[in-house]
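Quick start: what a row looks like.
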Amino acid sequence: MNRFGTNASNQISFKERGDAIINLSANERIQIIDIIRGIAILGILFVNMSFYSSSLMAISLQVELWQGFWNKSAELFRNIFIDGKFINIFSFLFGFGMILFKEGAIAKGRRFIPLFSRRLIALFLFGLIHGWFIWYGDILLHYAVLGFFLLLFHKCKPRTLLIWSILLLSLLPIVILMSGNAGMPASSDLSRMGQEAMKHDTAIYGSGSFIAIQNQRFIDWNSTLINQILFYPRILGMFLLGSYFAKRKILHNISGHLRLVKNICKCTGLFGFGLIMLGVFTQYSSNPVIAGWHDFLFVLGMLVGSPLLALFYITFFALLFQKENWKRRLLPFSFVGKMAFTNYIAQSVICTLIFYSYGLGLYGKVGTFAGLWLALGIYILQLIVSRLWLQKYQMGLLEWIWRILTYLRVSPLKYPNKHNR
């Protein structure tokens, strides 16, 4: 299970845990995973910012909502480096975390399947509350559902996990290749529909009553539910890839797998960015024949290039972590990563308060460029709060509640008195 910030090393002080990142110790695997998870939280916020502030229908129809050089540059930056990559990292970490959870349960003499099942049921409930009452774009519910499918693979050998991962990740691209239909052609009708949807949603989310917002939120939640189901094979494929890495202990002992990690980083970076850039090239090409391939290559880049780049980012930061001068620079991301569950929900609360009418009512008023800076500001705030919180508490508040629902007993949230600072 993706442990969303739960640290297995609960008996050492905050300072000791902070210093442990510069040592090649048993705690290293937790630190590098927390760092990658913390970075993924930032990437997910960059992407979600548009969905917090703009119409779901307009985004789905790929309507250009914001004009100007900076907005278009920010959109291009997101398309190349961010969109689709970090949610794949999150999925990878979920599968990786399940193996860690299983190993921890077995080491403590506990029954893994009942514990993990309760953990998934609790996650499902969190997802319902998040999607129905805070923000429609929840992913937790889907992770919980697919987590039960992931359970079917927990005894598999690494090679079996890798084969199933490749098959599942290839399924949707193969279907698209065989159908020859990569997306909707751009048209004035679609643009008009998108603009009308933006006006409609802005009126509701930006200035409507709470009841009106709640009704629209539920409508949008239903739309995302259907969309996410289509991507279940890809999500489960990334789960299994993460489980494969955990069983192979590649990230447990990066120095011992240095050649493999470097090769994965080089290959996934080369082919991942190559596919993404093909889509960008066709988008801006003046040649009608080349431009006609854009929809196909764009979708192929998202379905194939994005998982490859997710793996590139994971291995890239793992390699950086091996360099002494980068270890302390990466450490701050681990604070957010240790509380990723709490921070993920907190982002929805903060952003809906910024954009919805029961808050500041800025819905439809913040472009892509400004949205990236706003996301960065929110993340920096979360980083500071997370660090201060972890000086006194062992885990995030939602991680603590999740733990209670998993183990059916209340564990201490604060450190023992002798460790309080």
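That is the whole record. The CA atoms of residues 4 and 340 lie 5 Å apart. DSSP finds 18 helices and no strands in the chain.
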